Amino acid sequence: xxxxVCRGPAVIDLRRHNSNFCAExxxxxxxxxxxxAISDFGMIQPTDRVLVAVSGGKDSLAVWDLLxxxxxxxxxxxxxxxIGEYSDSSGGYARRFAESRGLGLEVIDLPDEYxxxxxxxxxxxxxxxxxxxxxxxxHLFDEAAVRGRYDVLVTGHNLxxxxxxxxxxxxxxxxxxLGRQHPVLPARDGFPKKVKPLVRLGEREMAAYxxxxxxxxxxxxxxxxxxxxxxxxxxxxxxxxLGSPGAKADFYFGFLRNAAxxxxxxNAESREALGLCERCxxxxxxxxxxxxxxxxxxxxxxxxxxxxxxxxxGGEQ
Length: 317
Ligand code: Q46
Ligand code: ZN
Ligand code: ZN
Hints:
The protein is α/β, with parallel strands linked by helices. It contains 13 helices and 10 strands. The protein has one domain: HUPs (Rossmann fold). Strands 5-4-3-6-8-7 form a 6-stranded mixed β-sheet, with helices on both faces. Strand 9 and strand 10 form a beta hairpin. It is globular, with a radius of gyration of 20 Å. The termini are far apart. Fe4 H S5 binds next to helix 6.
């Protein structure tokens, strides 16, 4: 197996691209894919201040590393979810990555700062753990990006993640979610701009990138993931990809080219004007936002409004 570029010994074969690469040219391939995604979708401007949502896993550490290699100025944010040993261990990987490279990492500890953890919070609020977790992370990442006046919030969702979410949304015709499924969500109504620079790279490529780049990441899966429907969708797509390399990318990018705009237009028409949550000051269509309702039901306490700059009124966004 030889590298497509230099004919040296290859370390990875990418059937979708009909290519093999050595470590050096695989690293370059990943950078090129991220640069292309950023440019194709207008994700990040060269002078933007970037905040990366970091979990300690391969994707978020790899995207942080790739953005720095491409010359972007990027800080990290880690949210400790209180999921037992998994959170202790993943937080350690995020901290060590930041420390070893002298990077800025903000850490928010959910049990310490909001008084609940995901397993007990989800039970008390009668929500599936991943639903309570997703809501919590979205709120805290958005809030930190706006509070820190970052131009863009980056997440490490890769092609496998996005194709699996698309698969689920198509399977059940969740047209509202299809309208929002795009690698770039512009800033609006007090929410930050959100982008996914890894959409051109798959899970296996991200694991390989971390290995060849010497990035240590938490390998163990979150114990709450069992039963998550997206895992089943990923497996189904992996089966299809085995027999038809490139099918996943065709499915996802074909959707963006041919159908995404139709669903997004439907969404824009039905969008409610947002006010501000009376407890935390976040944009919300209800008096109290979904996050503050979750915090209350989980028995915790949201930060008082005074500590959170009110958004939407200052014209920053
Ligand atoms: S951390 Fe949270 Fe994931 Fe764990 S509880 Fe589910 S959503 S699986 S990315
Ligand atoms: Zn090579
Ligand atoms: Zn709120």
